[in-house]
Design brief:
D-Maltodextrin-Binding Protein, domain 2, signal, three-stranded antiparallel sheet, six-stranded mixed sheet, ABC transporter substrate-binding protein, alpha/beta
């Protein structure tokens, strides 16, 4: 595609996304032709987006694309992970436009703090993104927010120690290299239980009544496998950055992390830098696929905004192809739009391709229902008990059932 066609395609995508977000009037009306409507927008982004100048650049570009608005911008620092709890305190006083991690979607919908996309905007999001990314911003069949990056973890490894074939299986890596894994991190630990047939809130992660099904013989087998290999020193707990430090000093050959660590891993491994989707794991003689939680980070508008139309348009603008490419160039934020994953810059990015492969092949959509709030702390405590060897091969079944009972406590 030549440059002029690319520009037209980008403009069309932005226009379609921003044209009809499911919102009412802006709260004030434009005066007549040739005049501008005064608009005030409060925008929340992580500090890194402001420090890199990405959000300021996008605001200037939006102004050029929308001369019908005279905009006063206010930018405040709120990370994607903190958005849900911050918005919930007072949705009416929250940002007009914000970035959020999709695991907070249920909370935001319940608080009436996130605007639904219109049919046309939703169709554009569906056309631009893989199904996993679309589902990550879907609640009860409705789309909220425009995804701008995937959110998952995968594998980094020292390719001088492990071949492409070696990294396809976790057990093989343990036999041939030093493997570090965040056992006591509740975002990582479930990968082994999913591998052995476990589910969380049903097959799609949306059925609260189904609860956590990580117990029984299958769950006990996973816990026993982990306890045995921790005791044997074959799995090194990755805590407080110890895995990354180990890559640098040679005491670790494999870690599991995400794109946020890509630059540091490159520095640690140099020419031996490599990354891949998750491996299989062999438990009780059965080889099964490990699966990470996957989700997205997305842009949304606040339906309580006094300038709802402009807010919805700007949220869509921040999730557009042009804005996502700029986000990648400024900060290395890997885009979700399928056409950008084929961009030469992204295509040659080892971590970006590992993330895309993981989301497509070795991940489950992280549940966004509010019951997930019961999951994190008990799972972290269970992981710590594994690391501290309070959970052993002998008591694996008993300890697993106690953990699952906590997850399913009403």
């Amino acid at each position: 595609m030549n440059n002029s066609k690319k520009i037209l395609a980008i403009a069309a995508s932005v226009a379609m996304l921003g044209s009809l977000a499911a919102c009412g009037n802006s709260g004030s009306s434009s005066s007549g032709s040739g005049s501008s409507e005064d608009v005030k927008l409060l925008v929340w982004t992580p500090q890194e987006d402001q420090k890199a100048g990405w959000i300021q650049d996008q605001e200037k570009a939006f102004e050029k694309a929308h001369p019908e608005y005279k905009i006063t911008w206010t930018n405040k620092v709120v990370s994607e992970g903190d958005t849900g709890t911050t918005v919930k305190k007072d949705p009416a006083a929250a940002a007009d436009v914000y970035l959020f991690a999709n695991d907070q979607l249920g909370m935001l919908v319940e608080a009436n703090a996130i605007g639904e996309l219109s049919d046309s905007a939703a169709e554009q999001v569906k056309a631009d993104n893989d199904e996993a990314m679309v589902q990550s911003v879907t609640n009860d069949g409705k789309l909220y927010g425009v995804p701008f990056t995937g959110n998952t973890w995968f594998m980094y490894y020292n390719k001088s120690k492990l071949s492409d074939a070696d990294v396809k299986n976790f057990n093989t890596m343990m036999d041939k290299a030093k493997v570090s894994f965040s056992i006591d991190n509740s975002w990582y630990l479930p990968a082994f239980y999913y591998a052995n047939g476990g589910t969380l809130y049903g097959p799609d992660g949306t059925d609260a009544s189904a609860g956590a099904q990580f117990g029984g013989e299958q769950g006990a087998a996973v816990t026993k496998f982990l306890a045995e290999n921790i005791a044997a020193g074959k799995i090194i707990d990755d805590v407080d950055g110890s895995g990354l430090a180990g890559l640098g000093n040679g005491s670790v050959d494999v870690i599991f992390s995400g794109t946020w660590d890509a630059e540091n891993v490159k520095k640690a491994l140099g020419d031996n830098y490599a990354a891949a989707q998750l491996p299989t794991v062999t438990i009780d003689g059965k080889e099964q696929q490990m699966k990470s939680f996957a989700g997205s980070k997305a842009v949304a508008y606040n339906p309580n905004s006094k300038f709802q139309k402009a807010a919805a348009q700007f949220a869509a603008f921040l999730g557009s192809e042009e804005a996502q490419l700029a986000h990648y160039e400024k900060r290395g934020v890997v885009p979700t739009i399928k056409s950008l994953l084929d961009n030469d810059k992204v295509k040659n990015d080892i971590a970006a391709q590992a993330q895309a492969a993981t989301i497509a092949n070795t991940a489950v959509l992280q549940p966004t229902i509010t019951e997930m709030s019961n999951f994190w702390d008990p799972t972290q405590a269970f992981g710590k008990a594994l690391v501290q060897k309070d959970v052993t091969p002998d008591n694996a079944a008993e300890k697993t059932e106690a953990w699952v009972a906590q997850l399913n406590k009403q």
